[in-house]
Structure formats: C-alpha cells, structure tokens
Fold this protein.
Amino acid sequence: MGSAYEDKVKMFFNEHLHEDEEIRYILDGEGFFDVRGIEDEWVRIRLVKGDLIILPAGIYHRFTTDSKNYIKAMRLFKDEPKWTPLNRAAEVDSTPARQEYVSRA
C-alpha cells in the first residue's frame, strides 16, 4: 500500500488524545481502537464496515488495522475540524480536554 499508508498507520498507533470528540464512521475494512480504561489499562474495540464510534475529547487512544491491513474510515466533526493529535505526555495531562475527561470518568 506504500510507505505513506504505512507511516499513517504507525502515526495512528501512537497513544494520543484530541481536544474535541473523535467521530469515525467505518466505510470498509476492519480495525481496532484501543482506549485507556479507568485503571489506565487498554480496552480494545473492534470496528467493522458500518460501525460508528465517538471517542470523547481527552481520552487517550490509538488505532490499528486488523491482519488484512485495510480500512477506509471517515472522520466527522461537530464544529470546526481539529486534526491535531496530542501524544501522551505529562504536559498533555494538564490540558483542559484531559482534565474535563478525567473529572467525568
């Protein structure tokens, strides 16, 4: 699928959060969102064609494809699109999105 695709998949597998909801609709293929649970453990969510997932702002997560290494997904936004992932780090834990998420968990 080419190096650009491989680089994108590797980028999505880095643990990160977003300052807004991440809304994804799976158009084709399969993959997994890993999200951090209340005890900081990984919780794996399998997604297939037709699934919709909404990750709240401030939740640490990562994404990977299944063994077929193919997925086509659409990202949806409620407001102005924000694409910037914030990789897990101590300074990211103090962002308003993370603090609000933790206070609700």
